[in-house]
Each structure stands twice: as C-alpha cells, then as structure tokens.
Amino acid sequence: MVIKLELKPEVEARLVAKATAQGVSIETYLESLIEELTDQEGKTLAENDWHSILDELGKSPSLTQAQPLSDDAICRESIYREREDSQL
C-alpha cells in the first residue's frame, strides 16, 4: 500500500534524523513505527513502560506545587470513618 503524507518541515527533519541515527531509510523507519503501534493495540504496558511513565509523572511540575496531605487526612481512621459511620 502506498500512502502519501504532507508533513511539517520540522516533523520531517526529526523523522529523518531519527532514521539516520538508526542507520535505516526513512521508509523503513516509518514502517517500523507503524508496525510497533499496530502491534501494541490491545496489549498492556510492560513493567518498564509503567516505571518510566510513573517517573515522568513524579517529575511533573504540577506535583511539586501540590500541597502535602496532613497526617489526619491519610490516617486509617480518617479514611474509613465515613464507611464505618454509614454501617452504624
């Protein structure tokens, strides 16, 4: 199958650079990317992928701005108080 794509010049330059770094043609590089994406459909992430995602999340600027929870907010009694009260 032949597919024609119009890419932004900066996207094309990045793709060419990545293909060159791997020592393959741009066509081969794009084909491998597409195959990788289609092979991943319906599969769960590998453990290493989860670790890298969580590491990136941990470095998120929004997390550094979050206020820490108080000891009372994370104690067992506080977490289960509402559940226990509803069972009475």
Would you kindly provide a written description of the structure presented here, covering whatever features stand out?
By secondary structure, the chain is mainly α. The protein has one domain. It contains six helices and no strands. Helix 1 packs across helix 2. The radius of gyration is 24 Å and the shape is elongated.
Give the termini distance in whole angstroms: 67 Å
Helix content: 55-70%
Shape: elongated
Mean pLDDT across every amino acid position: 81
Brief account:
The chain has 88 residues and is mainly α. The protein has helices spanning 9-22, 26-39, 47-58, 61-65, 71-74, 76-87.
List its traits.
88 residues, mainly alpha
Question: What's the helix and strand layout?
Answer:
Elements: H1 9-22, H2 26-39, H3 47-58, H4 61-65, H5 71-74, H6 76-87
Helix pairs in contact: 1-2
